[in-house]
């Protein structure tokens, strides 16, 4: 049998175990030789030995001078010389002498007495002696050395096994399992071994106390010492394997037991069944129960109990109830443990009715409910949101004479806290005290958690204060809850104060506590401060986790500092902390917000490459980000990928895509997506319809937009301010201001107050109709409501300027300053444009300079207005310098600016410069309308002046005309080029087209 279990194994070496004890080799003829004792002590020993032969020995000793002569060496010698005497008398003398001396006995005295008592089968007395021996706190090695030496001296090899059994048991009884195991391991090397029964008992206790390293050390030492395991040893071995989650190894041991003839008993099977249930392998556990029955072993109540509990924990309570029926059929009575497991199982599955049926069954069977079962029911009801029913049950159980405990009230407090009913939760805390039940840390924690969730931080702090006054010490969980609550309430300073107070009270924050504070600081954009707490974490040997790094990544992404966010991302990977989907999604969102869609896509691909599954949220963030940056096609590619993976896009993703197509004017594609989402059962929301209405309005299809607008209410959706603002803006831009005002009057009737966007749209509509009086009236109304903004002023100023009301425009500009509404570049551009059109260039120039003094960057529109102004008064030199200025500032000229400057150079007679700029216009693809009216005139003038353009310039002109559909003009230009001998006579339009295609292919290959 031993050979079966002495196969190759990893030796467990506990760093706490003693090293191999080196025993001192003591020769028997010198160990207690009289020469080692002084002459005076010899006389004392002899006299005491003589007196011990009398029954009244204690009286005789106390009547003599001998008590004064006692010392540990004398006692040891007396015990040694009287080993053959009455063991009980020796024990009595030992105790009497201990009281007389007042000093500890010699270690060997304990050993001699224990051996003598064991030799006489006085095991209880021997146990008492060894317990006293342990109490003098000698090292295990010294105790072992003393016992082994004494046994060898007295040739008591048979007794030593019993002594070791009793000594190991004594260590165990005192909770000194480490010493018990150390003694066994050291004794093994002395070839004096405890019995198998003692070993089994030690293994069992080590298992019970979860001292697994010691367990394996003792077990493998048994095998080395050739102590053959029996059914009890192997049952403990199976239990150990199951305890550490290695249930398959436990099954292997059971199988080998059966194969080698060591019959497993009921306990062995129960242990294995329990291990399988704990591992969730309940079907295998049930099969093993059937197997043991077939082998003639009848399952007991415990077998059924662990199976029922196992099935309930796997949310298979119906099957567990069937097992209960089988248990009753075989004549086994079920106890409260079984019923409680079933009730708990059904409660966790949400089957409250079945749980109550089982409760009623308990009562029907004449069994009284106990507080544990009632607590399970109350806790279950609270967790499924039926706290009121749980409170009613509390009243019932009190009426039945069952006394609720702190757990009962804690469950109810947690239930009401989850429902944000803090009045009742707090009332239960008061009721607890009235029933002389002291609130626990857990009940106070539940109250504080609920108060923080409901935002009542002041009351949460009050409960903490009262808790401390009542002698309860808040734990790190309570402080973390408070810190998190204050952080979520935007009270960062208070959170920091709580954190500091916690440390002052000696409660060390854990990773969750640090994370709560770090997350709050990062959300408040106080990243440097958050970093100091992260450093503190590391200094305290706490490892930052994915949530720690996620907070920094989110914080820096939020403020657009993607380089720093990426640095934290790389740092966490460097520390082997795997980013989760939330971290990746945060980075993707951050890159999209700063316009780096390539970076966002790179992170997204990296996420998929690392095996992190992207959910709908991640796809939605990426799609929205791409759309915000005008990347509609890329967004559609990602959307297609989402659909290919079997994920169902949510309403927000569809709505964002619909909005994207509407903004590009592709209404057909937008409605296709709308129809697709409806077919998939995804109901459009108001955001979806707002996007569609906006698209229809922009395309000028107001009839269809109004039809969609009118149908929203029928779909069960409420119109909002954006819906009205969108369609009002559409009517204003389409010239139907009357309908826009009708909708404005309708808004208050629907309970929707008009906002600034609605008023701005109406002001713009009135200005376009030239009705500046109505526009000004709306403006005054906006001022009263606090809606007027820079946009409002700009719209009205533009309206006044276009209506020729410069005084009113100037008055509005002054009022704008008085109202502390800051003018922007649009304000200045409107005024500059008006002044330029009025020929007031000096005033326009002054405004242009003032604009730049205010650090307002002129746009191409501003420069174009000035170019038009100088063109009107014929000041071409200023036009040229202004054009050079805008190019130097990095402003990209548009088609209008190019055409004006080309015309100016042409009129100036600088044909070559005009043609170069015109060619530049073509190269950049700025010209969209194919306006080549100056081309022939330019060519004629260039040819007459002897200027020869490059072939590329010629190609640009001809190809541009041809692609714009002006083939006749392209042919005429081509003829002029041939006439001036700029190109060969044989060149045709198709030659330029083919040459362009070759260039495109060549450039594509280079890339």
Automatic annotation (TrEMBL):
Superkingdom per UniProt: Eukaryota
InterPro entries: Mito_RNA-Proc/Resp, PPR_rpt, TPR-like_helical_dom_sf
UniProt key word GTP-binding: no
UniProt cross-references to Pfam families, sorted A to Z: PPR (PF01535), PPR_1 (PF12854), PPR_2 (PF13041)
Positions of PPR repeats: 230-264, 265-299, 300-334, 335-369, 370-404, 405-439, 440-474, 475-509, 510-544, 545-579, 580-614, 615-649, 650-684, 685-719, 720-754, 755-789, 790-823, 824-858, 859-893, 894-928
Keywords: Repeat
GO molecular function, one term: mRNA binding
Keyword Lipid metabolism: no
Transmembrane intervals: none
Similarity comment: Belongs to the PPR family. P subfamily.
Protein name: Pentacotripeptide-repeat region of PRORP domain-containing protein
Organism per entry: Camellia sinensis var. sinensis (China tea)
